Amino acid sequence: MRRTTFAAEDRPESPTELIARISAEHGSPTVTSTGRHRRPGGSVDAVVTTDPLPQRSLTRRLAPLAIGATVMLIATTVATTLRPADDAELAAPELSNAIVQNDPATAVDLPTVPNLPLPDPVTGAPPAPQDARESSEGPTSTTQHTQKKQAPPPAPLVKPAGDGKQAGLLKGWTQVGGDEFNGSISSKWTLYEGEGHSGNGTRSEKAVTVENGSLVIRGDSDGNTGGMAWGDSQRFGKWEMRAKFPAGDSQYHPVLILWPSDVDWPEGGEIDFAETTSASKDVSFFLHYSSSNQQKYAKKNIDITQWHNYAVEWVDGRVTGYIDGEKWFESTDGKTLPPGKMHPTIQLDYFPDGGSPKPSEMYVDYMRIYK
Known about the structure:
The protein has 371 residues and is of the alpha+beta class. It is 19% helix and 32% strand.
């Protein structure tokens, strides 16, 4: 008899079903070593390709155990998969931290927000306040590079003074000396002591002081006044003084001078690059020359009571005067130029003209020497 199929299910009989049916029809089965099943009469009707009956019996006994093991395995897998994330983190904190620190894939992309401070990626601590970060590290750029604050550059040797322009700055002269009168008078100055100009009045050191960063020379009602001379002399150079002459008596003459050092006056020459009276509304430039004391001069109307920068430039073949950086006098005539070295002086001279003079004064902010 050949293997048949169940019509309803359209499938071949299983070995178990086939054995059950044969056992019902013929009683206990006999299995030969060839695996053939014989009917009475000894003819072979079919070849059965199934496992021997003892193995089928073992399979039946072990099937429930296999099913149970499979169910337990599935249950364990489901329980492990559904375990809360907190338990996993508690079970392996070191591994969790290592992943956060070392695996770039764990980085979180945040929306682009200018200057957004991010928490610490490991501890989760919030960033320090902005003021605290700047006080310890200094300002940072958007790329988080620390920028050190730079110390301010030193002030230039020649600095702008007041409202007036300086010839030294405008002409690019190089300062080589001078006195700023910051608290005291340089030891290079020699203060006058003795009789006054042309024997009029007296000159006293007491009339010369430094106040609020400026040199002050005063003349009193008796014709007592003062003056001073710089100790270094030179042939050719550039000098600039910032000065003001408060309104006073016309008998007092404030004057900024280059005086001869090598050749006696008048042959040695004289350059008064700012001379006026304490009651004037103008200032004059006088270039003295020759043994007969000839003069070449210029005059300019300005408010002498205000600060102005008075400068003189003496080079080979030329003498030029400046007020607030603007040229107002010049001589290129060789016979008018000084024959030897000269040095600067500052004087408040007394020219008596009847009556007791009204006290007067002059101020000088600085004297600068250039080359």
